[in-house]
Write a structure and sequence with these properties.
It is a single chain. By secondary structure, the chain is an alpha+beta fold. The strands form four sheets. A six-stranded mixed sheet has the order 3-6-8-9-10-11. Strands 5-4-7 form a three-stranded mixed sheet. It is globular, with a radius of gyration of 16 Å.
Amino acid sequence: MTVMTDRPHMLTEDFEAVARIAARERVGTRLEFIDGVIRSKAMPDGDHQMIIQWLTRICMQHRPELWLHPGQGIKAQEYRAGRAIPDAALAPSEAFVGQGDWVDPDSILMVVEVTSWDSDTHRRDHVEKPRAYAETGIPLYLLVDRAKCEISVYSEPAGRRYETVRTVPYGKDVELPDPVGITLQTEPLKDWVR
C-alpha cells in the first residue's frame, strides 16, 4: 500500500464528518485517518473488552488521579492531521472535557491497543500506530498482542519511532516506565486468548 502523504484521500474535516456518521449509525467498525489514508477497525469482542477492563482496574488502583479513557479519538500526526482511536488512552480524568470527538494528545501518558482478529491488525497495531503515536509525542504505547500472546511497551518517542520496545510473553511482569510507573502482572491475559 502506498502512503498518501502528499495527497490524502480526503480533508481531515471531511473525514471527521464521515466518522461521526459511521459512529452514530453503528456500522460495526470505527474509522481512523492515518498517513492520509482512511482505515477501518473492527469493533472489540468480549475478550478484548475484558483486557481493557483488567487494565482499567490496575490503573485505578495505582494511579487514581488518572483514567483509562476507552475509545477516545485523538489527533495524531500533527503535520498530517491524522486521527486515531486507540482502544484506551491514560490521562487525567478530566483531560478531555470540552474537546469534542478528537482530543489534543498533550495530556496523554499512554495509549493502549489490543489486537483484533481482522486481516490488517499487524500493519495497523505494529507499524502505523506506533509511528503515529511516537510522532505525536505520547510517552508510552502499550500493545497487547492476542495472536502472539505477548505484551509490548514502547517508550521514549523520538520522531517517527519509539527508541525502546520491551516485549514479554503473557505471564511475565512488565514495567510501564515513567510517566506511568506501574508494573503489570500479565498472567490474567492468558484467559483472554483464542
